[in-house]
Every structure is written in structure tokens, then in C-alpha cells.
Amino acid sequence: MSKKYDLGQGDLEGMALHRFQRKLFKYEKESRFLTHERDRIQAREEVFDKNTLMNIYDLSRRGFISYLNGVVKAGKESRVYWGVKPDDSDVAVKIHLVSNAEFKKRMNYIAGDPRFTRIKKGMANLVNLWANKEFKNLRAAYDNGIPVPEPITVKKNVVLMEFMGKNGVSSPLLVESEVNDSDYNRLIKLVEKLFSKSNLVHADLSEYNVFKSNDKLIMLDFGSAVDISHPMAREFLRRDLYNINRFFIRRGVNVIEIDNLMEMIMPNDF
């Protein structure tokens, strides 16, 4: 049975913040993602900094989280945790890493987006903006019927969303699943619907950020998504379509030429 950490008010207020950090880090050490000392040190420095801990604490006091379980996804720019809400339902807790310099390479996905014209200097501000951008993108997609994790709330660099899976195990990714012509056609239609209904281009779409659950496709990782008026929206869309076609071709599925897909989704006279 996995160990859990209660984030209730008495738990945190009764201990110093550094003790709370060690408590969370102790569990991280037991995670299957952190088997070496180097990884444990990295988790301490990159994930549970003081501001992130206070953000998690604020979310717990507001009733969004009761406790955190282990990591379900670890990447260069973020970690996703299996959290549990007061009603015992699951929630995905995505922590964007404030200390990660990779975000500096993401300015092309922010600059030029009319929704984010005021960009404050500093890495922490950039990461917080990125998290807010992901939340807004998820909300725009979800409200227009695109199958994505339901966005719940955002607190600076921490995004809470629907947990896609069961008992702390995520739904399988597209790359981990058997696929067919129907999956390809469904995914293309999702890209088209995202464009036409939510005015978004995903801009980072691949077989690694689409869930396949009970023959339903669910898009995720919306931090890179841009408004269709973004000056690089056409380039990003073409790259998304290239990634989709490349994956399905490798799986032996017939695909539509990218130029034809572009004309269907974003015509030259758009």
C-alpha cells in the first residue's frame, strides 16, 4: 500500500517548512522514479522548493487536495503527482519546475500569443505564466467539448486537473496502445476541432501526449498550445500533423498527405 502525506492545516502549521519538505522528499525517495542519490537531490532542489510547497499548502487549505501520493509522470519541465481530494477522488497535480532552464526555450510559444502580452522577467514568473497558459488552454479545449483532462485550478506553478486513470495508474498513452485507422481519423478530427472550436493549435502533439482509454482518445500537455492567430501557428500545426502521420505510418496505418490536412484545417487563405 502506497504511503500518503496528509496536507491538512494542522500537519503543516505544526512543523517548520523544511521539515515538511523532508517529509515529502522522503516519499519521493521511495518512488520508482528516484532510485539514485542524484535523482533524490534533484527532486529536492527542483520540485519541492519553498514557493511550491506553499502553493501546495494553499491548495490544501482551500480544499482542493487532501494528500499527495507518488509521481505518475516525470519530465524535464514538470512532474505529475497522484493526488487525492477531500472526497477521496483522484486528482492530477502537475508541478512545473521553477528551477528548470528549459522554459527559456519556450518563449516562441508565448511571445506572439495575444492572450499573453505582458511577460514579467525572471524564471519563476515565466514558469508561472506557462502553468497559467496550460490551464487556460485546457479550459478552452474542455469547454468546447475536446476530450482533455478537466482543468480544476491553478496556483502559480501548480496545475490541478482530472486524473486520467485509476488507483494512481495513468491511462495508457497512444504510443503504448494498439492503433488502427479509426484512431488516426479520430485524432485528426480532434486536431481540426481544437482549431475550429477552441481556436488553438496544440503545438507539441505526438503519440506521447495522447491517452487511449476504452478506444477514446484524450489529448494532454497543453502548455505549448497557441492561439490560431499566433505568427507560428501554421508551422506548429504542420509539425503536429507530421508527428501524427509519422507515428501512424510506423504502425502500418494509411494516412492523409500533410498538405491535404493543412488545407482542410488551416487553408492558405485563412
Could you please describe the fold and organization of this structure?
The chain is of the alpha+beta class. The protein has 2 domains: 5-170, 2-Layer Sandwich (Phosphorylase Kinase, domain 1); 174-265, Transferase(Phosphotransferase), domain 1. Helix content is 39%, strand content 19%. The strands form 4 sheets. A 6-stranded antiparallel sheet has the order 1-2-3-4-6-5, sandwiched between helices. Strands 7-8 form a two-stranded antiparallel sheet. Strand 10 and strand 11 form a beta hairpin. The chain is globular. The mean pLDDT is 85.
**Helix content range:** 25-40%
Shape: globular
Major sheet: arrangement of strands: 1-2-3-4-6-5
Coarse structural class: alpha+beta
How is the secondary structure organized here?
Blueprint lengths: L4 E2 L2 H5 L3 H14 L6 H10 L3 H12 L5 E8 L3 E7 L5 E7 L26 H21 L7 E5 L2 E5 L2 E2 L2 E2 L10 H18 L1 E2 L8 E4 L2 E4 L6 E2 L5 H18 L7 H8 L5
Antiparallel strand pairs: 1-2, 2-3, 3-4, 4-6, 5-6, 7-8, 9-12, 10-11
